[in-house]
Amino acid sequence: MSIPKKIGSQFIQSPKGMRDILPQEQMWWDKFRRELDFISDYYNFIRIDTSLLERAEVFEKSLGETTDIVEKQMFVFKSRSGDRLALRPEGTASIVRAYAQHGLSHLGQPLKLFYSGPMFRREQPQMGRFRQFYQAGFEIMGGEDDAIYDAQVILVLFRLLERLKIKNVTLHVNSIGCRVCRPNYRKRLVDYYRPLVPKLCKDCRRRVKENPLRLLDCKNLVCQEYKQTAPIIVDSLCSSCNKHLKRLLEFLEELRLPYQLDHYLVRGLDYYNKTVFEFFTEATGEAGQKFDFAIGSGGRYDYLLEMFGVRQGQASGVGGALGVDRVIEVMKATKVNLGLRHKSKVFFVNIGEVAKKKSFGLIERLRDAGIMVVESLGKDSLGAQLRSANKENADYALIFGQKEAFEESMIVRDLKNGVQETVPLKNLINEVKRRMKQ
Ligand code: HAM
C-alpha cells in the first residue's frame, strides 16, 4: 500500500453535509447544553440516549413509507450479517422503540424524557440544512392523552428558546385529527384536488393518491395558490379531537404563550395525531432576504406507541425537538451575549531542562490547590511562552527557570502591568491565591 505524502485538505475531507464543530464554535454549543440541562432539570425531564443506528424498519414503519425522510433521505445500509440498518433521521421513533423494548412504562408515568444528539438525513446542504445535524427534544409518554402535556412540551421549548435569547419566535399550531376523523378530511381534500391534478407539480400529483395531507405542505408556488381555497381540517375534526385542540389552545392562553392557528400545518412525518406544532423565527438569508426559519417542531404520536406494542390506555405520547444547528446560527447572527465571565488563571512558563522536569509536579500542586493553570510545556523560549500567556488572557505568568529551580523559588509576573516579584516555592500557592482574589 502506498502512503500519501500529504494528508491534507486536498486529499480527504468530511462527507458532504457532515458537521465538524470546531473548538472556536464550542462556546455556542456549551451555552446551548447549559441551558438545555437547566431547563430539563427545572421541568423534571430525565435524559435518555438511544443508539445512532437502528433497524431501518423502526423509521420506515413509523415515519411513513411515503414521507420524504423514508423515501429519499435515510442513510440505509446492509450490515455484514444482512440486517438493514439506518442512521437515525430523528429521535422520537427511537425513543418509543426504547420505551417499549425496556418496559419503561414501569417507571413513573407519564415519563418525561429529554435528549440531544446527532441525526442524519440525506438532504441538499444549504443554510441551516445539513446531513448530520443536531436535535434537542422533550418527550412525554405513557399515561393519559391529556392536552395539558401537549401544552407542557410547548412551554418547555418556549422557555428554552427564551433562555437562549432567541427573539421573534412564532408558534404555529394545528390538529391533524385521528383515525376516526382524518379519513373524512382526506376524502374532502382528494375531492377538492382531483380536478386540479393536471395543474399540480409532479410530487403533488403523486401525493393526491399516496399522502393527500402533504399537498398542503408543498412549496411550489402554483400548488400553494390552490392551497388557499382547500378545505381545512378543523371543519372535519371529531368531537374528541376538537376538544383536545380547544383545551390545548386554552392552556396556551393561560400560559400567555402566543400562537397562530395554522390550518395548513401538517408536518412531514406520518406518526402524528391531533396536535402538531412548529416554531419559527425570522432569519436573514445570504442575499439579505428575510424568511421564516423553522427552528423546532413536534406533536402528539399516540399511534406510534401502539405500533411498538404499548397497550391502549397507556399509548399516549407528545413531544417536540429543536434544531440545534439552526438555533445556534440564530444566536450567532444576533450576537447573543453568552455571559462568559473572565476566569482568573496563571500561565506557567518554564525555561530549561531542569526546570521543565520539576514543572510537571509543580503545576499539579497548583491545580490541586484549585488554581487554574495554563501552559505550553513543549515550548522553551520565554518570548514564545509569554505570547501564549497573552493569547490565553492569563492574569499572571509564573516563570520557572534554572536559577529558580535551584533556589526553590518562582517569579510571579503581573501580566497587566509587567511588575514581577520572586516568591519562595513554599509560599507560592498562598501568594498566587492572594493576588488572584484582589
Ligand atoms: P422535524 O421537523 O423533522 O421533527 O425536525 C425538528 C427540527 O430539526 C426542525 O424544526 C429543524 O429545526 C431541525 N432539522 C430538521 N432537518 C434538519 C437538517 N437537515 N439540518 C438542520 N436542521 C434540521 C422531528 O424530527 C420530530 N422528531 C420532532 C418531534 C419530537 N416530534 C415529537 N417529538
UniProtKB/TrEMBL annotation:
<dbReference type="InterPro" id="IPR036621">
    <property type="entry name" value="Anticodon-bd_dom_sf"/>
</dbReference>
<dbReference type="GO" id="GO:0005524">
    <property type="term" value="F:ATP binding"/>
</dbReference>
<keyword id="KW-0067">ATP-binding</keyword>
<keyword id="KW-0436">Ligase</keyword>
<dbReference type="Pfam" id="PF13393">
    <property type="entry name" value="tRNA-synt_His"/>
</dbReference>
<dbReference type="GO" id="GO:0004821">
    <property type="term" value="F:histidine-tRNA ligase activity"/>
</dbReference>
<dbReference type="InterPro" id="IPR041715">
    <property type="entry name" value="HisRS-like_core"/>
</dbReference>
<comment type="subunit">
    <text>Homodimer.</text>
</comment>
<dbReference type="InterPro" id="IPR045864">
    <property type="entry name" value="aa-tRNA-synth_II/BPL/LPL"/>
</dbReference>
<keyword id="KW-0963">Cytoplasm</keyword>
<feature type="binding site">
    <location>
        <position position="135"/>
    </location>
    <ligand>
        <name>L-histidine</name>
    </ligand>
</feature>
<feature type="binding site">
    <location>
        <position position="267"/>
    </location>
    <ligand>
        <name>L-histidine</name>
    </ligand>
</feature>
<dbReference type="InterPro" id="IPR006195">
    <property type="entry name" value="aa-tRNA-synth_II"/>
</dbReference>
<feature type="binding site">
    <location>
        <position position="121"/>
    </location>
    <ligand>
        <name>L-histidine</name>
    </ligand>
</feature>
<comment type="similarity">
    <text>Belongs to the class-II aminoacyl-tRNA synthetase family.</text>
</comment>
<protein>
    <recommendedName>
        <fullName>Histidine--tRNA ligase</fullName>
        <ecNumber>6.1.1.21</ecNumber>
    </recommendedName>
</protein>
<keyword id="KW-0547">Nucleotide-binding</keyword>
<feature type="binding site">
    <location>
        <begin position="271"/>
        <end position="272"/>
    </location>
    <ligand>
        <name>L-histidine</name>
    </ligand>
</feature>
<dbReference type="GO" id="GO:0006427">
    <property type="term" value="P:histidyl-tRNA aminoacylation"/>
</dbReference>
<dbReference type="InterPro" id="IPR004516">
    <property type="entry name" value="HisRS/HisZ"/>
</dbReference>
<feature type="binding site">
    <location>
        <position position="139"/>
    </location>
    <ligand>
        <name>L-histidine</name>
    </ligand>
</feature>
<keyword id="KW-0030">Aminoacyl-tRNA synthetase</keyword>
<feature type="domain" description="Aminoacyl-transfer RNA synthetases class-II family profile">
    <location>
        <begin position="37"/>
        <end position="331"/>
    </location>
</feature>
<dbReference type="Pfam" id="PF03129">
    <property type="entry name" value="HGTP_anticodon"/>
</dbReference>
<keyword id="KW-0648">Protein biosynthesis</keyword>
<feature type="binding site">
    <location>
        <begin position="90"/>
        <end position="92"/>
    </location>
    <ligand>
        <name>L-histidine</name>
    </ligand>
</feature>
<dbReference type="GO" id="GO:0005737">
    <property type="term" value="C:cytoplasm"/>
</dbReference>
<dbReference type="InterPro" id="IPR004154">
    <property type="entry name" value="Anticodon-bd"/>
</dbReference>
<dbReference type="InterPro" id="IPR015807">
    <property type="entry name" value="His-tRNA-ligase"/>
</dbReference>
